[in-house]
Amino acid sequence: MMTLTKLHKMKQAGEKIVCLTAYEASQAYWAVEAGVEVILVGDSLGMVVQGHQNTLPVTLNDMVYHTQMVQRKNHQAWCIADIPFMSDMDLSSVLGAAARLMKEGQANMVKLEGGQRVVEMVKSLANLGVPVCGHLGLLPQSVQKKGYQVAGKEAESAARLLEEAKMLENAGADMLVLECVPALLAKQITDSLSIPVIGIGAGHETDGQVLVLHDVLGLTIGKAPKFSKNFLSEVGSIQTALYQYVSDVKSGQFPASEHCVG
Ligand code: KIV
Ligand code: NA
């Protein structure tokens, strides 16, 4: 069984951490068989599973349901479940959401988007024994206000991101996802924190990588993000594609420069 201690040791040893989204039992099972160490039940399910335009319509009930399915067939990977949009509007709702994801969904960790805004929530969750993953950079739950764009391109916003990453770690976060930030900034943040930093569209120098399963298998409807890669088109089976993803992250072959943003 994967643990926080093992994930911390992997960071210290420079061994890449492989994370992938999964939304139901068979996806989780085959991802784990391929060697995926961290499964993210992402609210990206709103787009790739439910067919919505963005992640905003995803409910806490949806997240609990998908986490339950994943955890029935995941007997090995660390499982992170996303706190959905507006389930973190105040402390009591975020605590209630985490309780359901951990008790009913049996997640190992919850993830919430944002920096300074969520620091007090991270502290409370950590004090209650709930492992928390932060999420900085491009924040899909803020798309109506900010759009989808690379974060931390200017010196000021880069400094702010580094500062917020440290705030999250100091508040008790045990992991951090960085989405769509320049590779150099991602490296700087990774080097500045003792907790594992998982990147998506953040270059190859973070402690690990995460991708959306549907992008890896070419199931995405429309244009897949630049930072993703279809691993199925080069091989014969879903199992081999997942195995290829794991070994390419482990060896540092993914992401290549063509998958970098900013
Ligand atoms: O919901 C999701 O899949 C995510 C990843 C893109 C990090 O949050
Ligand atoms: Na998400």
TrEMBL record:
Mg(2+) binds at residues 43, 82, 113. 3-methyl-2-oxobutanoate binds at residues 43-44, 82, 111. Its main location: cytoplasm. It holds the Pfam family Pantoate_transf. CDD domains: KPHMT-like. The keyword Secreted does not apply. Keywords: Cytoplasm, Magnesium, Metal-binding, Methyltransferase, Pantothenate biosynthesis, Transferase. It is found in: Cytoplasm. PANTHER family: 3-METHYL-2-OXOBUTANOATE HYDROXYMETHYLTRANSFERASE (PTHR20881:SF0). Belongs to the PanB family. Catalyzes the reversible reaction in which hydroxymethyl group from 5,10-methylenetetrahydrofolate is transferred onto alpha-ketoisovalerate to form ketopantoate. This is 3-methyl-2-oxobutanoate hydroxymethyltransferase. It comes from Hydrogenovibrio crunogenus. The gene is panB.
